[in-house]
Structures are given as structure tokens and as C-alpha cells.
Amino acid sequence: MSKSVKAGLLYACILILGIGAPLLFPDYTFQLALLWIMILFALTWDIAGGQMGYNSLGNILFFGAGMYICALTQVGLYYDIGAYTAASGAIKVDYTPQQYFTGLILGIALAAVGCVVLAAIFGRIVFGLRGPYFAIGTLGVALASAELIGTWGYVGAGGGISLPVYPGDPDARAMLFYGLCALAATGTFLFLRWLYGTSFGLALNAIRDDEEKAEAMGIHTTRYKTVAWAISGFFLGIVGAVFGNMTGFIEPLEVAFPTTTFGIFMVLMVLLGGKGTLWGPVIGAVLFHIVKEVTWTYLLGWQWITLGALIIVNVIFFQQGIVGWMREKWPERFGLVVDRRATISSQEES
Questions:
Q1: SS3 for 249?
Q2: CA–CA distance, 285 with 121 (Å, rounded to integer)
């Protein structure tokens, strides 16, 4: 069986599982939708963290920004935002189906575009930093954004914003947002699968391997780094907009900019699956989400200990991630040619 046929069968199985999962397990539709979000988190973090070698701790900025941009768009199309978010509850809101879906579609589109703009603005600042300074700088941007939104009364401040109520059956609502999450994650995967095979992907790898040499070869590294971050922002903005409507209520610290949970989960999932690979973030996200949901359900009180143990095992035994370990174990299955005779000779000499 050829490699292309195997890949086609794999994608077909994933498609069938993706469509059938909420039908087989309707009580877990939200958790399944969250799985797709986790996959998107891992894929987008790996663009800079794995492919380019810039470990960002502030990607959650785009998730929260997309959430707020979409919410304000949905509200602002038909109502005064300041009155809507007033603590006194100044107006009663009723959305028609046409108003709801028009606001949702436009909100998602503006969230994606708005996050690209934010990435271009902040990228010019933070990409002047490298190594741990870059990681700390991006973390500072995310934390500052959460605090800023938390004190901005016009957007609800710390009290948050209630999203428009879906004008239909709750089951239909669950399926709608599951489908949007699945579509966003699948679109991200397919786009990155194409992107990593282009000269742009090679440029990102060159920056990761040796940025000074990449600049000497004529690669405009700042431009590539900014565009890569903007791509992450585009997809995170979309999924942030969708997640905000899934929860029905957003506030800055725990929902929109959860740096200590979702922000850290992005990094851990990629490290678990394997940095700098296409399938590593997907595998890491699936495994991490399953462990997280099981421990939160059946080992409440021990969930953080379990996740901590998973991280320790990963760091000690799988520093290169699951996919990296598999590549070393079975290189031929990944299309890598290994000269066994040279390996044996070097071992004998040592």
C-alpha cells in the first residue's frame, strides 16, 4: 500500500470519527469541541515555538482578543455597547435568528482580521527579543492585556459580557459550535500541512537552526517571524470567537486570557507530542486532553498531580516528544534513511 493511500485512509478515518463522535456521545459534545480547540492551540503554538524556535508564552492574547472582538461586534451591530455592558443591566436584549447569525459570522471574521493586526503591531516589539527574554516579553503582553480589559468599563471590565443567546434548540446549538471548532482545527491543520512544504516553512526552519546565518543568506527574519505569529493569531482569533459563544459569557482573567491554564496547556501539548512536527501537536493535544478530562472527572483533587507527573515523565523520558521518540525508534517508517553499517562502525570505534 502506497504512502498516499495510507494517508488518505488516515484522513478518512479522522473525518468519520470527527463527524460521528458527537452523534455517538451527545452528552460530551462540549468536551469533544474542546478537544478540537486544544488541537488548534497546539498547532498554532508550534508555528513559532517548534518550526521557528521562538517559545511564546503569550499566544493566549489572540484567543482572548478574538473573543472580545467578536462579542463587541455582535452587540455593537444592534445595541449600544456601553449600555449593554453596564453593571445596572440597562437594556433587555432579544436577538432574532438573522441578527444572531449575521453578528456571529461578522464577529468571527473581524476577530481573525483583528488578531492579525495585533500580531503585526506587537510582533514588531517582541521579536526584537530572543530566547527567554522573548518568552517573558510575550507573557507580559498577555498578562497586561487581561488586566487592561479587566479595568475597561466600556467592555464590561471584570464583570464580563454575556453573549447573545442562540435562537434555537440547545442540541442544535451544541452541534453548531462543535462543527465550527472541528472546521477551524481541520482548516488549521491542512493550511499548515501546505505551508510547511513551501519556501516559507523552510525559512522558519532556517531561523530556528541559525538566525544569524539566515539573515546573512538574505532572509528577512523579522518579516517571517511577524507573519508566522500573525498566522497563529488568525486561527486563534477564530477559535476564540467561537469559544466565547460556546460558553455564553466571557470575562478577562478566567475565560478570555487564561494564561495559567490554556496558555500553559499550549506549550505542554506540543512538548508532549513533539515540537517542530506536523502530527506531534495533534497527538500531544489528544493525549493531554484525554488525561485532563479523565482526571478532572474521576480524580478530582489529584488532577494537577497527575498532569504534573505526565510532564515529569515527558521531560525525563521523551524530551523530543512522542513523535520525536518514534522517529528515533523507527526512522524508516518516517522516510528517514539510516546507514546501519556506519552506525555499527561508530559504535565499535567508541
A1: strand
A2: 29
Question: pLDDT digits over 252-278, tens only?
Answer: 988 999 988 899 899 999 999 989 899
- Cα Dmax for the chain: 81
> ∠ at Cα 34 (249, 120), nearest 5°?
75
Determine whether 126 is exposed, middle or buried from the number of CB atoms within 10 Å of its CB (0-12, 13-18, 19+): buried
Which sign, positive or negative, has the C-alpha torsion 112, 141, 315, 49? positive
CA atoms of 65 and 121, how far apart (whole Å): 14
Check if the beta carbon of residue 280 is closer than 8 Å to that of residue 321. Answer: yes
What gap in Å lies between CA 271 and CA 122, rounded to an integer?
A: 25
Compute the chain's Rg from CA coordinates: 22
Kindly report the number of other CB atoms within 10 A of residue 199's CB atom. Answer: 8
Question: Nearest-CA neighbor of 43 among 234, 305, 299, 208?
Answer: 234
* Count of all residues that appear for the chain in the document: 350
CA distance 40 to 239: 8
Contact 84, 91 (CB under 8 A): yes
Distance CA 2, CA 21 (A): 28
Cell digits of residue 179: 462543527
Q: Give the span between the Cα atoms of 276 and 96, in whole angstroms.
A: 45
As a 3-state breakdown, the chain gives helix, strand, coil percent values, each rounded to 5, of 75, 0, 20
Cell, residue 221: 527574519
Cα 196 to Cα 40, 200, 228, 258, 306: the distances in Å are 16, 7, 11, 29, 34
Residue with cell 506531534: 280
pTM above 0.85, yes or no: yes
Pairing between β-strand 249-250 and β-strand 161-162 as defined by DSSP bridges = antiparallel
pLDDT tens across 150-196, in order? 999 888 888 889 898 898 898 999 999 999 999 999 999 999 999 99
